[in-house]
Amino acid sequence: MATILVVEDEPDINNLIRSHLEAEGHTVHQAFDGLTGLALVGQTRPDLLILDWMLPRLDGLAVCRQVRQDYLVPIIMLTARSEEIDRVLGLEVGADDYVVKPFGIRELMARVRAMLRRVALDATASDAAPLAATEGSDDAMPPAPPPIVRGGLRIDLADRVAALDGTALDLTLKEYELLVLLTSHPGRAFSRDFLLERLWGDDYEGFDRTVDTHIMRLRKKLGPLGEKIATVWGVGYRFVE
Ligand code: CA
């Protein structure tokens, strides 16, 4: 069961969502404005964030953008706006899914279940480390993580090999790690800060353009598929499926 943070300023809606999530066994935290919501993301480290667009103190878009600087948590946005431009904008700051108000609570619950399933699959696909062996069984090898396949690109996580149309790509370690991160979360925008912290951590030597330079080289090596690594203006990069 998951820990889920609901950021919604209308108490009736927030409580309705909470009671349905709790009925399915999830742990729920609530916030009724954007600033509190943002703080609670850091404090409660939710597995899923349900985020209203129109919020007092800090709107959902700003919350989403700031959360994406540091966290991978999947985000479902609630919005009364159904205009295409808003959907695109929301996806560019890193929301993973949308539910347009007024929504049926069953529809939202279905999206929540789908998202949690997707995250579980993502976790399996992007975690190159072997799964913990079942207690008491010493015979079986842990199952190899499934490869990531995106068009002509295939990444075998167990062997740490990426191939394009059957030909192995000559990638540096950082390029490989960037590619795995981006392709295992298609559509999700990653900020430069997040990528630096995640992939370089203490190795980071303070060059402003480190991420951009690596992305540029990676795009070149990917040929036409390189266009799938899109620049998200003001944020960073994402892999477009
Ligand atoms: Ca609202």
Overview of this structure, please?
With 241 residues, this protein is an alpha/beta fold. The protein folds into 2 domains: 3-124, Response regulator (Rossmann fold), CATH 3.40.50; 148-239, Arc Repressor Mutant, subunit A (Orthogonal Bundle), CATH 1.10.10. The protein is built from 8 helices and 12 strands. The chain has helices at residues 11-23, 34-44, 60-70, 84-92, 105-126, 173-183, 192-200, 210-222, and strands at residues 3-7, 27-31, 48-52, 75-79, 97-100, 148-150, 153-156, 161-164, 167-168, 190-191, 229-232, 236-239. The strands form 3 sheets. The chain has a 5-stranded parallel sheet, with helices on both faces. A 4-stranded antiparallel sheet has the order 6-7-8-9, covered by helices on one side. Strands 10-12-11 form a 3-stranded antiparallel sheet. Helix 2 packs parallel to helix 3 (60-70). The protein is elongated. The model is unreliable at 126-139 (pLDDT under 50). Bound molecules: calcium ion.
- Please identify which CATH superfamily of the largest domain we are dealing with: Response regulator
Rg, rounded, reads 19 Å
Strand arrangement across the biggest beta sheet: 2-1-3-4-5
What helical percentage do the residues reach? Answer: 40-55%
Known CATH architecture of the largest domain:
3-Layer(aba) Sandwich
Q: What count of structural domains? A: 2
* Ligands, deduplicated: calcium ion
Which fold name fills CATH's third level, the topology of the largest domain?
Rossmann fold
Provide the residue-averaged pLDDT: 82
- Please identify the top-level CATH class of the largest domain: Alpha Beta
Q: How are helices and strands ordered from N to C?
A: EHEHEHEHEHEEEEHEHHEE
Report strand %.
15-25%
- The quaternary structure here is single chain
Largest sheet: 5 strands, parallel
What's the tally of helices? 8
Which stretches of 5+ consecutive residues score pLDDT under 50? 126-139
What is the first-to-last residue Cα distance? 29 Å
The outline comes out as elongated
Overall structural class, as computed from helix and strand content, comes to alpha/beta
